Amino acid sequence: MKYSISGTASNGMPVNEVVDLPDEAAVRAYADSRGITLSRIRLLEDQSVNVPISNTPRHTATRSGRMRSVSSGLFTWAWALLIGGLITLFFHLLAWG
Q: Which of 10, 36, 64, 83 has the CB geometry, 3.0–4.6 Å to 31, for a possible disulfide?
């Protein structure tokens, strides 16, 4: 049987999933094993709905995209700190000099 479940994950994020399990007790056990506090369990009227093989969330960005984002942030901070250090050195030399 296919059920639509709604609730809150242990990290506070809302959860809305379609699961294919034999009965409501199995749905409750599934939610408990994943740390989901259920607010609603509803039997789907259309049992022909395709359920994904895995109910785990997937990353929307590719690995290279995430790495590019991290490296861009590090590059920007490195330049900012370098420029800040040079300005500090300039004012230090100007004050002593």
A: 36
**Could you read off the pLDDT of 25-67 as tens digits, one per residue?**
999 999 999 899 999 999 888 777 776 655 555 556 688 888 9
Q: Do 73 and 42 meet the contact criterion of CB atoms below 8 Å apart?
A: no
Give the whole-angstrom CA distance, residue 1 versus residue 29: 15
Nearest to 18 by CA among 26, 9, 27: 27
DSSP 52: P
Alpha carbons 91 and 27: distance in angstroms, whole number: 66
Query: Taking the model in full, what pTM does it have?
Result: 0.50
